[in-house]
Amino acid sequence: MSTMFGALNRFISRLDSESPSQSSRDRSAYGFQVLRNKNLEISIEPWYDFIVGINGRQVDSPDTNLFATEIRNCAGASVNLTLWNAKGSRSRNINFPVPTPSPTLGITLQWTPLSVTEDVWHVLDVIAYSPADTAGLLPYGDYIVGTPEGNVHGEAGLGELVEDYLGRSLRLYVYNHEYAVTRLVTLTPSRNWGGSGALGCVLGFGALHRLPAPMTEPIAGPGETLFETARFSNEEHRPSSTQPQPNSPSVYPPPPSATPSSDILVPASMASPPPSSATLPTASGPPKGATRKPRNVAASNMTFDDYFREGEQKSKEEDVAPSSKNAAPLPPPPKSAKSAPSQAKSPEPSAEPSIEEEKSKAAEPEPGPESTDG
């Protein structure tokens, strides 16, 4: 028993040691998060936008001096930035000119992992007369994205923050999906408001409760990709499986080069017209002397009654049971060659009188002599 528990403990410890490396691989994407934007000519949204590429190259260094040098080198020209947005996890490219006198963008950046956008709490339900209801939180449309009181990480991070601010004012950044605005909400967590919980609302956390794409963007149709990927010049090129390779043979045969006749209607959706009758292969007939099996082809105008009548006729033909009119009489059973053994007769009674008969005779009186009347 101790050996089994020891092996189980070693297995659990090995899983615990492997989990940090796995999580670090999944959360290793970084970028410059935009904290403030003073240039209104640049369509960059603070907190939600991350700069992940510049001039077709991926940003892989947290050094802001290298980024500023790249911007200064584009003075008098335009710079191309690749932005990743937390709303819907989508990427886009923007181009704008860099002024010569002051080659700056007017934005404040911070090297941040993209996984910070996963720490979002979706407001699913708000109980009446609760602290959340008093603060004006709206169900389904509101998302708690952060707080000016500090960084909040993990599913239990918001709960721990609320416990620290019981009876005190707590400020939260709340994003509304329906109106596409972010507002600062102030509420006072309490457990004496008359209901369960310190906030009085139901929150959702995880992959199903991430920030959705804005409602102004078109909805992706069936079969379209949900995630856009950006290619940089310093990334290794990976050929797509859906694009044909230059040296790979074509899967589809080339269209026939014969020109169709004028009496063939070519649909507009066809890439090439159908082959003419001259190019179609001729089918060889059956060999000589072979009899062709007749085929029962039903007429196109047959009704259901005809089908049922035909099926009934076939079932009668395939039925092997003989009818009562044409049935031959059954033959008699064969006669046996040997005669049947004679039945034994019961023995006849013997002629000798039995004892009971003798006794009855002895009891009977003997007749006397006959008297005559004189």
Cα separation of the termini: 139 Å
Structural class: alpha+beta
> What is the overall number of helices?
6
Total strand segments: 11
Oligomeric state: single chain
Overall 3D form: elongated
In terms of DSSP E residues, the strand content is 15-25%
Q: What's the order of the H and E elements?
A: HEEEHEEEEHEHEEEHH
The low-pLDDT segments are: 16-26, 226-230, 260-267
Measured as a percent range, the helix fraction is 10-25%
Mean pLDDT: 74
Give me the Rg, rounded.
51 Å
Largest sheet: 6 strands, antiparallel
Structural notes for this entry:
By secondary structure, this protein is an alpha+beta fold. It contains 6 helices and 11 strands. The chain has helices at 2-26, 64-73, 131-135, 157-164, 304-318, 355-363; strands at residues 30-37, 49-54, 57-58, 78-85, 90-97, 107-113, 121-126, 142-146, 170-176, 181-187, 201-204. Strand 4 (78-85) and strand 5 form a beta hairpin. The radius of gyration is 51 Å and the shape is elongated.
Topology (elements, then pairings):
Elements: H1 2-26, E1 30-37, E2 49-54, E3 57-58, H2 64-73, E4 78-85, E5 90-97, E6 107-113, E7 121-126, H3 131-135, E8 142-146, H4 157-164, E9 170-176, E10 181-187, E11 201-204, H5 304-318, H6 355-363
Antiparallel strand pairs: 1-2, 1-6, 2-3, 2-4, 4-5, 7-8, 7-11, 8-9, 9-10
